[in-house]
Amino acid sequence: MLDALTPSAAPFALHNLAAEGFLFATGIENSAPRIEGGRFRRDQMAECGHYDRWREDLALVKAIGCGVLRYGPQLHTTLRAPGVHDWSFADESFAEIRRLGILPVVDLCHFGVPDFIGDFQNPDFPQLFADYAGAFAARFPWVQLYTPVNEMFITAVFSAKYGWWNEQRHDDRSYITAIKNIVRANVLAMQAILRIRPDAIFIQSESTEHFHPECPLSLPHAEHRNAERFLTLDLNYGRRVCSSMYEYLMDNGMTREEYHFFLRQDLKRHCVMGNDWYVTNEHLIGADGHSRWAGEVFGYDTVTRDYHARYGLPVMHTETNMDEGPRGDESERWLWKQWSGLMRLRQDGVPVLGFTWYSLTDQIDWDSALRERNGRVNPRGLFDLDRNIRTVGKAYQRLIATWQPVLAQQGHCLRLPVTAQ
């Protein structure tokens, strides 16, 4: 186990260290993609009642025992035009977060962009987003932990490969354009934040995926998808992609100079590899290359081990949830399954620094990935939408209360510099 981030991973964090303990977290769901040809925005903060009950929600984070909250102001309501910001909601909510002593991991872009940007095909998005990230860091200099762009892989796949959100495209060229714009935006945002807060730490919240071949004819398709799943993190961390992915990038519009831009970056040492895990993260690939959900085959710990071996970074489990099911206990069973996988990773020497149940409250229409406006409540939160605690909320509360003291004593945790203003 590691008592701190290793010097090779994060030399910036080795001075004036203060233990924060294991990071037990939840999040406020703030997905905001556009659907129906861009005519309608799914704002989950609005749909789940957070704008009206944000003080109550933040109090519930403390009540359940979480010291960490994945949270961010909505990009589409805060960035009104290039260089024009409406900080009114962020000023209030972040003041309360600070007063309560909650450690925020600030989520700056969650699946959608402002109307004036359009979608992830816009080449102006990376610089506009970086300017916004720098403006946020300057306004809230006490914030240290960031997820600039949430789930870069899923953002690109759902918007420009599956055709579900935003630009709703299905072709490889649009998909690679989305990837290079999204990752470039993330990289430029990290640089902008570091100019304001040189000790900032970036916790990538990225979907952890695996693709299983259904038959021998599907092997090439599975091999391609299992290489493709790493593209966003490879580019973000400046890691050379494999030869087949290099050809895939070049064949679909990425230039050599654009590729070398990513290789020139030195930001990995500022990062924690956050990974998200759901029952839908493993896929079965058919002979025709089409995929469908496979359910849990390998599980969180096995697939996470692959990602950790590839990047060598400290890990944080940054998202998971499960519907409570007809018996009302499926989410609790899933919680303990995820926790057991996490503990196995730590036992095997993988430095897992935190765990997140996402999100604090139930969500709306995630059973259709927000594509359909059904208004269906998905019972996946620690609390329902009336803010009554669910069975999984009570279980998570017990888990935190029993494990936090033990993990803090072990000292195998993320340590942060004491430099906050």
UniProtKB/TrEMBL annotation:
SUPFAM superfamilies cross-referenced by the UniProt entry? (Trans)glycosidases (SSF51445)
Pfam families on file: Glyco_hydro_1
Q: Any idea which GO molecular function terms this record carries?
A: hydrolase activity, hydrolyzing O-glycosyl compounds
| Top-level taxonomic group | Bacteria
- BP GO annotations: carbohydrate metabolic process
**Protein name (record):** Family 1 glycosylhydrolase
What organism is this sequence from? Siccirubricoccus deserti
